[in-house]
Each structure stands twice: as structure tokens, then as C-alpha cells.
Known about the structure:
Structural class: mainly alpha
Amino acid sequence: MSSVLDTLNQVLFTIGADHVTWAELLGFATGGACVWLTVRARILNFPVGIANSAFFLVLFAYAHLWADAWLQVVYIALGAIGWGQWVVRRPASGPLVIRPASVRMLAGCLAFVVVGTAVLYPILRNADDAAPFWDALTTALSLAAQWLLNLKRLPTWWFWIAADVVYVPLYVVKHLALTAIVYVLFLGLCVAGLRQWQGAVRDVVREREEVAA
């Protein structure tokens, strides 16, 4: 195991003064593929996302971004759950379709972000996290986004976009240049995903209206 971790943390090349490792490069590749698959609402986003989380777990632990590192463990678990939710459905309920979220669901997600950030911040500060507040905030936002993704709810993209807006400068400051670049890519794909899923929601509403008529 240690030899695998050593290999993943081996420096391949530099971008300016920032060292790029195998973990960061593979995280870049699988991350871009995962978001693209999610935009297309393809179920393969889950296994690719699990691989992406494994690479970023190594990367963030090495960079002492503890919340982001532990978040990858949660992502792996939530990814496995979401994979099952998208595949295994009761015959009566049918497959999951892209839907908007209720006001109550959105309020619950926002409350989770506020409370989660407040709880995580002192824990990360005491653990000598490199950026405790921003790490706590992005962790809470990402967990809310992943939960909404598992349910195929449109606002998942709003939370991913909010998290990415913080992640990009955070990784620049932490000298993770390639990861900052991939999160710029994520941000663009998230905007594209929001538009595509909005179109899918409109199609579902239109079909229901035609059936009702």
C-alpha cells in the first residue's frame, strides 16, 4: 500500500512552481470525465466519480486539506449509494428522472450547509487544516450537492457551482495548479449541466401536461 501511495505522490512535472503528481493528474482526468457523464445524466458518472474521489483522497491528504480528504471518503460511500439509487428502483416507482427540488428540500440543504460549516470549522481549525473555514464551507456545499445528485434533483448544480467558485482560488493558494484548472473546467461543465438538466425538466413537465390534456 505504501508503495502505491508513494507512486501516486510522485512528481511528474511542474506548472510554474507547483508540482503535479500522479494523484493530481489522474484526479484531473477522472474528474473531468465524471462531470461530463453527470451532465449527460449517465450512470457511469458514479464508478468514475468513485475512482476520482480515491485519487483526490490521496492528493488532499498529502496537501493537509483534511476536510477535503475526508470528504472523498464520504463521496465514495455516497457514490455507491447513488449508483444503487439510479439502478435499483422498485417497479412501482420506476426509474429516477430529473426533477426540481421542493422549497422544503432546498431550505433543508441550505440549513445543512450553514450548520455543517459551523460544526466543521472549529474541528478543522484545531486539526491545523490549511484553510479551515473555506474547507468547511466547500465540504458542506459538496455534501448537499452530492445528496441532491443522488436524487437527480436539478439544484444539485447550484450547490456544485457555489462550491467550485470557492475551490478554484483555494487550490491556487495551496499550489495545486492542475487541480485549480480542473475545477475551472468543472465550473464550466456545471453551468452546462444546469442548462441541460433544466431542459430535461421542461421536457418532463411538457410530457405530463400532454398526458393530462
